[in-house]
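In this section we walk through a basic example: taking a raw amino acid sequence and producing a predicted 3D structure, encoded as discrete structure tokens. The instruction is simple. Fold the sequence below.
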Amino acid sequence: MSKHLAALIVSAGLIAPGSVIQAEPIDNTNTLPPAKPGQCYAKVMIPAKYETKAEKVLVRESAEKIETIPAKYEWVEKQVTLNAAHTKLVPVAAKYEKVTEKVEVSPAMQVWVTSMKKGALPVSPTLLSAAKASGVALTEAEPGMCFREYYQPAQFKTETKDILVKEASEKVETIPAKYQEVEEKVLVKEASRKIVEVPATYEVVTEKVLIEPAKTVWKKGAGPIERIDNTTGEIMCLVEIPAKYKTIQKQVIKTPATTKVVEVPAVYETVKVSKLVTPAEEKRTKVPEEFKQLAKRVKTADASFFWHASHDASKPQGAPTGQQICLKEIPAKYKTVEKQVVKVPASFTKEDVPAVMETVKVRKLVTKAEEKRTKIPAEYKEVSKRTKVGNERLEWRQVLCETNINKDIVSRVQQALITAGFNPGTPDGVIGGATLRAVDEYQRSKGLPRGGLTIRTLESLGVKI
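The resulting token sequence is shown next.
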């Protein structure tokens, strides 16, 4: 932790001066919670806790009040001195003046906001963590610097894949029998068998080829209830994506090629006859299978995000996402207190009184004049000071969004808010500005985490889903 950041934390009243500063995690939501398809989770802001303490401020310093005790005399008969020479003490009152003093009630600080415009919203710890993880040196930034996030889409290439469209088969041909003529008086042609070719039959069938299997992915939720009072807005939903198929046609064998045997009877005659030398045969030739090439899109590089400083003159590659962080300096706040201080403290002066000579009765000094000092205590005034005792934090909480909400649930939420004394408008089952404000007011009154229609809020309202 830098010395500058530690000084800001001490000045904000988060820890006592001289204490050991130990980093406290703000965002423990880097890992998404276990979920079922159709469930949505949002990062909600658990607000910081504060307490107000009274602090004493000096408005009038301590002083002293001085009183004089006069000298005591007695009359004596003397013919020389009437009044002896002496010193007279004259009190001088203290002088005061009113001064004003500026008391710091809110220290100066530097905060990260979405822009340098007046009224810009603060940046969430999640976005700061993402910027830091992408290489933004947050601790080295100066007030007035801005950083913008850019997006580079994923890269793809097309590959080809061979798909079987026709299976391997056999082609069958017949080789006829061979004869020779001989002279016989009885048998002209012996009985034989004739092999007849029966060709194969085919049919065209369609087949669904899997090109991308089914999967579940986390996607950002969408809908009119994903932001309340700009406390958060990041909603993640577990969505089931079905498998992708492509339908192709291919020719398959319905019945394979074959042969059948036909009986040929013997022929008798007293003439020349043909004698069987070699019987008829069949010849089989293999027909190879046929393939068709199918194009398939394959990812070569994932999409990426990076940050670019506004004071950097180079042009960034990619498109801006709309996310921006700027370091803004907020001046300290003071309260003017009026107090009375001693300008000149109380004192006394001495005056010499000469002796009076006469031949009559005279006063004789018995006890000298004295001074009496009384302490006036200092005056203090109590000033209220607000101190943080617990930091804000982010947590994943199950919420409703367009993925898992319906009109009936919204109507029951609106009715429950009316019963609890909050005004969501007409209970029409539609999320609108009045309903969102009523939900936010209810969460504030119950001390619930704010940032959406969380399951905890629904349980508090008695709405079951």
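Looking at the output, two observations stand out. The chain has a mean pLDDT of 77. Residues 433-446 form the longest helix (14 residues). In the next section we compare this with other chains.
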